[in-house]
Fold this protein.
Amino acid sequence: MNVEVVAVGTELLLGQIVDTNSSWIGEQLALVGLNSHFQTKVGDNLGRIVDTLSRALERSDAVIVCGGLGPTQDDLTREALAELAGEQLDEDETMIDTITAMFGERGRRMPMNNLNQARKPASAEFIPVQPGTAPGLVLPLQKGVVYAVPGVPWEMKEMLSGYVLSDLSRRSGDPAAIASRTLRTWGESESGLDELLAPRMAELDQLGNPTLAFLASGVEGLKVRITAKAADTATATSIVDDEADRLRTLLGPLVFGTDHDNMESAVLAMLEARGHTLGVAESLTGGLLGSRLASVPGASAVFRGGIVAYHPEVKQQLLDVPVGPVVTETVALAMARGACARLGTEVGLATTGVAGPDALEGHSPGTVCMAAVWPGGEAAITLKLPGGRQQVREFACISVLDLLRRRLMTDDA
């Protein structure tokens, strides 16, 4: 089954709102084994919405149209569905009662234009999952089926997860189960990763199952998604597990986690397993590293705190950094040792350098010195990181965490 996604809203075309709904829907369709070859955005114009949906039905078996189900005059998805079906919009008394009750439960007055949301073409049905006042619609047509869902992300996701995806799978007649796993990597470019995995991907092209896809995630690294299809969930999961083990062997230390892991959660888990605590000393990252670490649930078991030593005098007074240039590996190591001493930890991390836009001490923007100290040793490196000021700071955070991760892995080997 081919499923097309149509996002409705002039604000999407003007860039006032980023269309994250379509990307999420596309991901969910892939996870349940449904093809999606087209995604389209269209403004709040009845004729253009009807034309877009008509074109979508000519090339796809089903269409998910997102947005345009509100109560105002520019919410035209219901009218477009009625025109596609050649029917009038009729008010549904049961839905009127449902929407009225929702407002009553919230202690709010219901504006009369909310009754527009209780209208539907005669051949359409309301989606039984309704988290908000905007009900979704299912419209079977001769060419295919249209699902209309709200543009509010959490409402849309509940309808997709609670009804639409399972109904699409039922209509497709394909009982197959889909399993997926994402390996998180850092330290290699997309082209480099493709080169490393090219022989295995050629083998999988012949097999057809599982499949691999690269997903670039900016400062969070590259993702390698494994997707398998089988007659049941257990078999599909087993295929994914076997392939994940194979790829870990091929990629080695490039893989730092799976699925929802990030670099900070991976490093904190490694330190907790060793019984170590962590302190950080930050200059150009200005507390960003500590913030990322503190965002991980349970971080307090490992992370004791951080020192933001931005000015050279603060570095000298709090971290025993020697007087002189501060964009050096020597200073980064002194900061990391100072973090351990001041915060009472076994492991310390430090960043210093030039975030930009101006040069410092003869070093161009993007020059970052970072260091890690741990019971097994210490290490410092200098990197030239890309991007503007914020990107340099973000790259520095994940790079210094990766520096520690790889050294700990080497100690384990």
About this structure: The chain has three domains: 3-172, 177-258, 263-412. Residues 13 and 43 are 7 Å apart (CA to CA). The first strand starts at residue 3 and ends at 8.
